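Following up on my earlier thread - several people asked me to post the actual chain instead of describing it. Fair enough. Here it is, all 78 residues.
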Amino acid sequence: MKLAEFLNIGALELALIAAVAVPFLLVLYSLIDILRSDFKTPNNKWLFLILVLFVPFIGSIAYFILRRSYIKPKTPFI
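Reply from S.P.:
Thanks for posting it. Predicted structure:
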């Protein structure tokens, strides 16, 4: 038995759930990553937090594109 049959939902409902869940999970992951990362300046962390909170989907995509240039490089263990 397929999951869609078990839940008694069709393809349109599955597409709607995916259209809502994927951006939500992207925003959630970006917020967690922003809070856990060490930025070069604290202002960058606040800038990305505000961007993701006020423009969630576009802000998350922008954060993941621009992230490398604003985060401190990790020092390797010796």
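DSSP finds four helices and no strands in the chain. That should answer part of your original question.
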